[in-house]
């Protein structure tokens, strides 16, 4: 592990280095990590900024959308000057402004069955901050096939949920929670039902925390558990999420072995 830090590095990360669970070795692990954020919106904004601030060495940001005025109520990586610009590029600029030592890579593309595996394969951990089931299932299936850890958060109105999926390490996958996408129109998106802006900030920050724990190998992760937050009641609860022995993706006899079911390009619509 390369522990060759400059004096500026030591000052920047001093509060991490003071933690016995992190120290210089842990900070070196963060510097060596490669994390992809899919969706540079309400979740992806605080997520990307905290990962950059923490010193994640390679940070990818994937989002094909452009910044709109309605985004600024919650997507704090963007500003009025970002209107009309690519979200991935705007969020990358904000991340670089916080920590120019991070290698921030921009992917202003729509995910497809053709490019998802190659893109996800470039990273160690993938974070899903999107707002539609087509993209969520594509990202989840690609992570399972590529044997990549997925940290997934979702928000709607005044609620959020968060879990980590590591089927390659014996944990459940996303399809153990949701075997198949719901029918179109059954579950509204944030653009249809609304969301309290600060809720996305809390969930995106929790998502960043779980990513850092995964990289550092500390604490109790969320693999096999689902964290649910009710903001109006100010209440968190965690429920057990077991592996489904009949899961179409991660069971002993899977029926999903490639991404051929995802025939249409997925618009990366961030929460």
Q: How does the overall form come out from the CA principal axes?
A: globular
CATH homologous superfamily of the largest domain - what is it? NAD(P)-binding Rossmann-like Domain
Strand content: 15-25%
Uncertain stretches: none
Number of H- or I-type helical stretches: 10
Radius of gyration: 18 Å
Query: Which CATH architecture of the largest domain would you pick?
Result: 3-Layer(aba) Sandwich
Percent in helix = 25-40%
What's the CATH class label of the largest domain? Answer: Alpha Beta
Structural domain tally: 2
Which structural category fits the helices and strands?
alpha/beta
- Main beta-sheet strand count, sense and barrel state: 8 strands, mixed
CATH topology of the largest domain: Rossmann fold
Quote the distance from N terminus to C terminus: 36 Å
Report on this structure.
The chain is α/β, with parallel strands linked by helices and 271 residues long. The chain has two domains: 1-32, no CATH class; 33-240, Rossmann fold (3-Layer(aba) Sandwich). The chain contains ten helices and eight strands. The protein has helices at 7-12, 14-17, 23-32, 44-54, 87-98, 116-120, 133-146, 174-177, 190-193, 197-216, and strands at 34-38, 58-62, 103-107, 125-128, 149-156, 159-165, 225-230, 235-240. Helix 4 (44-54) links the parallel strand 1 and strand 2. It is globular, with a radius of gyration of 18 Å.
